[in-house]
Amino acid sequence: MTIRVLLVDDQPLLRTGFRMILEAESDLVVVGEAGDGQQALDQVRALQPDVVLMDIRMPRMDGVEATRRIAGPGRDGPAKVLVLTTFDLDEYVVEALRAGASGFLLKDVPAEELVQAIRVVADGAAMLAPSITRRLLDMYATKLPSGEEAPPQALGALTERELEVLKLVARGLSNAEIAAELFVSETTVKTHVGHVLTKLQLRDRVQAAVYAYESGLVRPGTL
């Protein structure tokens, strides 16, 4: 199955580099390019890509707003957004995740990791980089609940095991790692993750991780 990719970045040289990397793979095809968020929206409608590689800082419309319009709440289109950023502490990354991005990578990521991330996101999973996500959430700790507030009522719908799984997802663990931690099968973990996403009305693991911090279930600096 061929994965259709749209490249969105305001630097043509970077788009060219990404195109060369991706088109060397037999299962990836670059269907188009865009230099800003508005062009990205037009290209998504016209080309129907599976994955959008989205820069954050661009003219006319930034990557956060473009992500929200492509993959945000109420959007049921097939395109998944994988955000690219120059800095691992980019102030807009958390907002991009909240807007519906399925993950993010640094622009200097090794080629094989970029290719694998696109495949993971296209498959409906999320590309969650634990170390960078941890640093981002630590940086935004002052904006997160103090822990004294009552937890959201939605958490009451989760079983004890589902809460355990959500905490481990927030740590950035994969299904295999969670299975090893809880001494269960990967299939069981996948089922629990699916229940968590459904009950909390979340799109993917990235949003689940952000939710775990925002709800106070997991505190920055305590992992």
TrEMBL record:
GO molecular function per UniProt: DNA binding
InterPro entries from the UniProt entry: CheY-like_superfamily (IPR011006), NreC/VraR/RcsB-like_REC (IPR058245), Sig_transdc_resp-reg_C-effctor (IPR016032), Sig_transdc_resp-reg_receiver (IPR001789), Tscrpt_reg_LuxR_C (IPR000792), WalR-like (IPR039420)
Gene3D superfamilies: 3.40.50.2300
Annotated ranges, domain Response regulatory: 4-122
Keyword Ubl conjugation: no
Residue ranges of domain HTH luxR-type in the record: 151-216
GO terms classed as biological process: phosphorelay signal transduction system; regulation of DNA-templated transcription
4-aspartylphosphate modifications at: D55
UniProt keyword terms in alphabetical order: DNA-binding, Phosphoprotein, Transcription, Transcription regulation
Superkingdom of the source species: Bacteria
Name of the molecule in the record: LuxR family transcriptional regulator
Taxonomic source organism: Streptomyces rubellomurinus (strain ATCC 31215)
